[in-house]
Design brief:
The complex is a heterodimer of chains A (322) and B (260).
Chain A: E1 3-7, H1 18-27, E2 32-38, H2 42-51, E3 56-60, H3 64-67, H4 71-84, E4 88-92, H5 95-108, E5 112-116, E6 118-121, E7 127-133, E8 138-144, E9 150-153, E10 168-171, E11 184-190, E12 204-208, H6 215-228, E13 231-234, H7 236-240, E14 261-265, H8 271-274, E15 282-287, E16 300-303, H9 306-321
Helix pairs in contact in A: 4-5, 6-9
Chain B: E1 4-7, E2 10-12, E3 34-36, H1 38-54, E4 58-63, H2 69-78, E5 82-86, H3 96-110, E6 114-118, H4 129-137, E7 141-151, E8 154-160, E9 164-171, E10 174-178, H5 190-196, E11 201-204, H6 206-209, H7 217-220, E12 223-230, E13 238-241, H8 246-256
Parallel strand pairs in B: 1-4, 1-6, 4-5, 5-11, 6-10, 7-10
Antiparallel strand pairs in B: 2-3, 7-8, 8-9
Helix pairs in contact in B: 2-5, 3-4
The chains are: A alpha/beta (322), B alpha/beta (260).
């Protein structure tokens, strides 16, 4: 079976992000998956990669991937594409993952599909990607017609299923070229999400909007998120006002999420927000305005003041958890 | 002096329903009203601010049908100096890889110290174009910027990452993409609107750029749409007014669906 390359998303400390298991699951439908690992931590991660069917793990343990964004990873993948002639390359559809996919497409003269929510083997085994367009209003099936198919897959869209693999570590010599080192990282900071799950990987997302009224008012969103083990999201009104960091913005110009449960609180649900969340499996909305468009897509809507509904909800969730 | 090229895309208004054309599955660009892609307005603003601070010209570079002239004119009315409009029937249906090829050719012909664009478009939302342009042009990729600083030939951006931010530095010439936290785009003034009517817009075909028509459009694209369908509407849910039991109603729903 043809090899399928999967670029691992990981923390650097050997912790594999959930989306990597999802990519491996999708890759197994197209061929035999091999992981491409950038930077340190592969030994610690091998067990986890084996659980999801990784045959080989190409390990390029270079500091260049941390020091220079995007370009070195694209360069490594391009070399592996040339050497291994894979049936496809799967990359996490994060903002950085999509950029890597874009550069790789230029380097290898290959078609790239972004934001895939499902991948199947189409005609002749070639990958067919399902993509939601216009914020999920239209579902498109696309294919790559030239080169090696490169597909960026939206996190949390494909459900990860285990399958045994050898996860044989194969060291790859790599040092980024001067061209790939043209943009250098001089400082980095991670927004404090505490012990909460990643926004794009969370099973439950609790999002707050303009209705929270202030940074102080937004704290009840965090409180509910913590009681449900959820990630916190925010509407653009909230991040524009500076009540919550931009890294947590859900919508057209922010993150796209697809959790099992999305709780929209004090969010009117303008089309630009819905574009980032309407493929969520279940949606609950709490809003004062009965005309708020969010209610059109909610499985359960409560028309009421969030500052009276949420305290009661928090009490009941606490009581049910015992 | 920093000569700036801002890439601008005309997109359908996100506030109205958008569709794909039957057959090839390309975007219906005629039916809905066209607007400047929102993030590109931030790119124009940033370009204008940099030119005001450091000197230099702002050139709008856009690829699109004849109708895109409206968006180009608006960009000029915001204060850009001139524009290049790549307009060719053979471009219809181009995917991101083709778009980057054509824009890179137009940028190389126009000349630039700094290319600025929005980090994604509201229609295709691929988020790949800036990275592709940096790769094609062989210049530093300084993308997803919430802040841009230029000092001599050095450009430093605050890059919004999936979990926080990075400070990334490179030297001119470079490609920068921006997020909407970077600035507040100006509205065109009456004076700006009048002045824009006299600003030069160079209309170029693929032949003018030395790009083979067969390498563009649907035929030249590296990807294809097999089929598409409107997503089935979500089944209508239950909307209830809080009568003092709203929180309990949500809790019961969560318990029933095993979320708690």
């Amino acid at each position: 079976m043809a090899e399928v390359l999967v670029l691992a998303e990981h923390t650097g400390g050997g912790e594999v992000k959930k989306v990597t298991a999802e990519l491996l699951t999708a890759a197994r439908r197209l061929g035999s998956p091999s992981v491409v690992w950038t930077g340190p931590g592969a030994e610690a991660a091998a067990g986890r990669l084996a659980e999801f069917g990784a045959g080989r793990v190409y390990v390029a343990d270079s500091a260049d991937f941390g020091d220079y964004p995007v370009a070195p990873a694209a360069e490594l993948l391009a070399r592996l594409v040339a050497a291994k002639s894979p049936a496809a390359v799967l990359i996490a559809g994060t903002t950085e993952g999509k950029e890597i996919a874009g550069r790789l497409a230029v380097k290898t003269s290959s078609g790239v599909l972004t934001d895939a929510i499902n991948i199947t083997a189409g005609a002749g085994g070639a990958p067919a990607a399902e993509q939601p367009n216009f914020g999920g209003a239209i579902t498109v099936h696309s294919r790559v017609t030239k080169g090696t198919p490169i597909i960026a897959v939206r996190p949390n869209a494909v459900s990860a299923e285990p399958a045994p693999g050898a996860a044989q570590l194969v060291p790859v010599e790599f040092a980024a070229s001067a061209a790939a080192k043209a943009a250098k990282v001089t400082e980095r900071a991670v927004a404090d999400k505490g012990t909460r799950p990643d926004l794009t990987e969370a099973q439950i997302v609790v999002s707050g909007g303009r209705g929270t009224g202030s940074a102080d008012g937004f704290k009840i969103i965090e409180e509910l998120a913590d009681s449900l083990g959820a990630a916190v999201g925010a509407s653009r009104a909230v991040t524009d006002a500076g009540w919550y960091p931009h890294a947590f913005q859900v919508g057209q110009t922010g993150k796209t999420v697809s959790p099992q449960l999305y709780v929209a609180i004090g969010i009117s649900g303008a089309i630009q927000h819905r574009a980032g969340m309407q493929t969520s499996k279940t949606i609950i909305a709490i809003n004062k305005d009965p005309e708020a468009p969010i209610f059109e897509i909610a499985d359960l809507g409560i028309v009421g003041d969030l500052f009276t509904v949420l305290p009661q909800l928090l009490d009941e969730v606490g009581a049910r958890k015992g | 002096m920093v000569n700036i090229a801002v890439c601008v895309k005309q997109v359908p208004d996100t506030a109205v329903e958008r569709t794909l054309k039957p057959g090839a599955g390309t975007l219906d660009r005629e039916t809905p009203d066209g607007l400047i892609n929102e993030l590109d307005e931030y790119a124009i603003e940033e370009g204008l601010k940099i030119a005001e601070a450091h000197g230099g010209e702002v050139t709008i570079v856009s690829m699109g049908p004849g109708k895109a002239a409206e968006s180009i004119r608006k960009a000029l009315s915001m204060g850009a100096d001139k524009a290049v409009h790549v307009c060719d029937e053979a471009l219809a249906g181009s995917d991101a890889l083709v778009t980057s090829l054509v824009l890179a050719a137009a940028l190389e012909q126009a000349g630039f110290d700094l290319v600025i664009l929005g980090s994604e478009s509201t229609d295709a939302r691929t988020g790949v174009l800036a990275a592709m342009l940096a790769e094609r042009l062989g210049v530093p990729q300084l993308t997803l910027a919430a802040k841009v600083d230029i000092s001599g030939s050095e450009v430093t951006v605050r890059r919004v990452t999936d979990d926080g931010y990075q400070v990334v530095t490179g030297t001119l010439p470079a490609v920068v993409s921006v997020v909407e936290k970077i600035n507040e785009p100006r509205y065109p003034s009456f004076k700006g609107i009048m002045a824009a009517k006299k600003k030069p817009v160079q209309v170029l075909t693929l032949a003018d750029l030395g790009v083979d028509a067969g390498a563009a459009g649907l035929a030249g694209s590296w990807t294809a749409v097999s089929d598409f369908a409107a997503r089935p509407p979500r089944a209508a849910g239950t909307v209830v007014k809080d009568e003092g039991d709203g929180g309990s109603t949500v809790a019961a729903f969560l318990a029933e669906r095993k979320f708690i």
